[in-house]
Protein: Metal-dependent hydrolase
Organism: Streptomyces albidochromogenes
Amino acid sequence: MSNTQQGRPAPAAIESERTALKARKVAFGWDRTPLHWVPGDPFTSHTINVLHLLLPAGERWFVHVYKQVLPYIRDERLREDVIGFIGQEAMHSQAHDDVLPHLRKLGLDPTPYTAQVDWLFEKLLGDRTLPPGRARKWWLMERVAIIAAIEHYTAFLGDWVLNAAELDRRGADPTMLDLLRWHGAEEVEHRSVAFELFMHVDGGYRRRVRTWATAFTALVFLWQRGSRFFMENDPTLLEGRATVRDLVRRGREGVLPATGDIIRSVPRYLSRTYHPSQEASTAQAVAYLANSPAATGRTAAPGGA
Ligand SMILES: [Fe+2]
Ligand SMILES: [Fe+2]
């Protein structure tokens, strides 16, 4: 069934990084979260806020695609992982969606941007009217590969935010931090699923490279447009701007991922020996989730999660 790297052995998973996946029911109260939830730093707040624009539609789309791929899975353990993944992503999508009314209340209406993102995932990356057979399967495999590439970055960001102590030092809003870290920890937990699914149903190396290029370009494009959108429409800023220089500087300060780390993550995904279990730490993710205010049904307290 699969043309896994043209006869090369599949990249080795680190077995101890594997964990059973379950969706945790979470609830966040946004009433006390300010618009600039990293105090005095609208650029960082809004650059991270772009997640709330992209993830509701994006993760709904993951779920939609994965439900279609379930019949192609011939491995029980992988099927269980995919079902766990679907449950987690559905919850993530909902949790980020719930932030949007709060942003609207604070004077920043995200609808002009989210309408475009919805169109991208529902129409451009949607099912399309394809005849059953080869064309339909090709498009399904293409999307499975795109999701694997995106998940390389969600795991990267999850690992980053779990370790971004500078956000705590700057007094970032505890509820927002808990949303990001609960989500980031589950991204780390399930970081191998999308790649293993892709390797199981297709695994073609050219497809991996091609879809990585598509996903990376789209993410960079959507992210810079999203942060510009927020900065330009923020009612509290007279001349809100988002520049590459801001991004590089915040990366150096540790409140956003460092540009060098983002660049270095590229060859890792494209390496033929890549396996997501080689990145980040499941133990750290599970430890965070055991104490996350939202995941354990408590409320985030001011002054740290
Ligand atoms: Fe997610
Ligand atoms: Fe994910």
